[in-house]
Amino acid sequence: MTESPISTHALGKTIGRKTILRNVSVEVSAGMVVGIIGKNGAGKTTLMDVLLGFSPASTGNARVFGHDSFTLPAAIKGRIGFVPQQDELVNLLTGRQQLSLTAALHGRWNQELIERLRSAWEVPLDQIIGRLSGGERQKLSILMALGHEPDLLLLDEPVASLDPIARRQFLQEMIQIAAGQSRTVLFSTHIVSDLERIADQIWIMRDGAIAWAGALDQLKESVVRLTIAAREPLPEGLKLPGAISQRVAGSKASAVVTDWRDADATRLRRELDADIGVESLSLEDIFVEFHA
Amino acid sequence: MKGIAGTILRLLYVSRMQRWLAGFGLAVMLSALGALTLGWHQATHSLIALAGAVGVVIVVIAPIVAGPILFASLAAPRTTALIPHGRMKLVLGAACTQLLLAMFIAAGLGAMKDAPVHTVFAIAFGALTFFFLGFSLSMYYWPALLVWLPLLWLPRMLAFAFPQLHLGARLVSPRGLLALLAASVLAWVVYGIHIMKSRRGTLRGWNTVGLGSIAANSSRSGASIPPTPRTYTARDALRILLTGNANIRRVIVRFVLFLGAVFIGLTLITADAPQPGGNPAFVFASTLGFMAALIPGVWSGVLGRRARRLWLTAGAGRAELFAAIEGQCWRLIFFAFGMALLMDVPLVAVSNHSAPALNTLVAMATLPLSCGSAVLYAGLLYVRGNRFVDILIIGANTLLLMAVELSAAVNSHAFPALLGSQIILVALLRQVARGRWNHIDWLMLRPPLAAARMT
Predict the structure, then answer these.
(1) CATH number for region A6-218
(2) pTM (global) more than 0.90
């Protein structure tokens, strides 16, 4: 039986008195592309740091390919590629030197892939890294993470510094990598359209916890905006089931609810004696509502 | 005013470690002051006064050392470009900070040691100005580092070369102190104009975070660009990615040769001057040895942060990374110190003074290594963020280093015992550091984010 690339159980991380991750329980199957979205400070980077073994879990556990992430053996680490939010390149080296050094540390290295991507992304490998722009450094970090053809790729806001063309090229490459060789990709981003383009599954993080996890379609179907127009004034303490946010004013109300099913509309119509309007939301709207 | 006040606060005590040190130093200083005021233990008066003076030093040491670095971050073009008179506020804030520090030193030492407050203030402000401006400029123009070199010999040489001028007495005369203050203020004005004129980031190597990029000087600092891609062994790769330089030894050789040549030149120039404080060749040789051994030791902290990436890419465990960093630092310490010892031979040969006592020679050979190793392991154990216990350990280590150096300088009988205790402390520090590395949390071992924001 193949081990799940990533699994966490009741994972928590506390530094001092600050809780950064709380009760994160997830499982990622091989070949999945998972996108994480959340506000700044929601815990995305910390989650990746714990998954990669940079930081120990305070509670619960995190496992990568069945191994505890904090004590990953070398063989498992060799199956992981990582692009950090802030690159960890060596300023005094050239891009080519940095890639050669990274290749020397890995058992396998696909030079052909690197050359193809370098040419497509126009990465100036013979320049000193300290003189590269933010986007060029980001591209080089991505090349370093892809060269050894990892089975699991973790990308912490990988496209933040890329121009729209490079971003599109990168996303296409991600789709090919994930689809062609059944690699698992976990990436965080603030760009909602990127998530919609390539993610199979979406995790919405809020205050260190996974507020919602599931497929994009499932998310869009289950999170809807309701507009309620009743014949009589609505009760003051009205609590709509699964409401993320709601506003009640007299006989009218609007709310965003999760876990919505079509049958719920009929039930609400009957209970409140009201017309119920159901509106689908874009992913961006859903994200905003989750953090309202 | 808000911008200037904000700059002062940041330059004084931006980090938690600085605040801890300030609190600790103040507590020491106030306790000593209390004991002196109450006339407690007259016999130990001088010792209590010395402890109080050390407290003053602990309070001011962090802002003095970190100030120029932080200033460079705050002065980043993009940070200050949109703030009206942003750079002027920064310079004024920096100048006021040094002024406040000088006032604190004068008040503290005046209360503790009955030193003349005006004299201490003027000299402290002059020295702080000299240090801040020299350090700050050296981030943009590395030759500015050499500004500090004359401090080693110039005052003494001048005083003895021109005894009839009574330079020391003139300096502490009201007119001399006034001249020193005027020179310091003038230096700030010139520096301020220089910084403000560079508003388009024309200072070499000035990038978005303000600090001069090392990469800008890379072609001259020994980072070679191979004409064709080459392959490395995994061991080489680990070494280069840890040290961040493919030709680190070449950099060390150039540094030691350059500094050695400067010292040899100074020894030759001052050969005939009277030397009441000892043979300058040996002072230079000791300085060279200390710099050669300490710099690779101080570097261990940087290597520790770089190891985060290698934990994943090199497949190495935490214990292996600790051993790799330790080995790398030791190799560099021995290499640099060996180079320094080689340079000592011509340095001593051109000197026309008699050789120092045997124990001084032993100190010259052992002290740099013991200090380098103490700093190495102190850097490696400081991996859990700014914890009070860690600061205490590093503080105690620093005090012991100072005591060992002082005992060597005054040829004290306590030197062997102090050196022995330092070696034992190094062994203990290593054990603690190794234990901590088995549980290292790289979330806490990230470079501190500079508070590059000015309100």
Answers:
(1) 3.40.50.300
(2) no
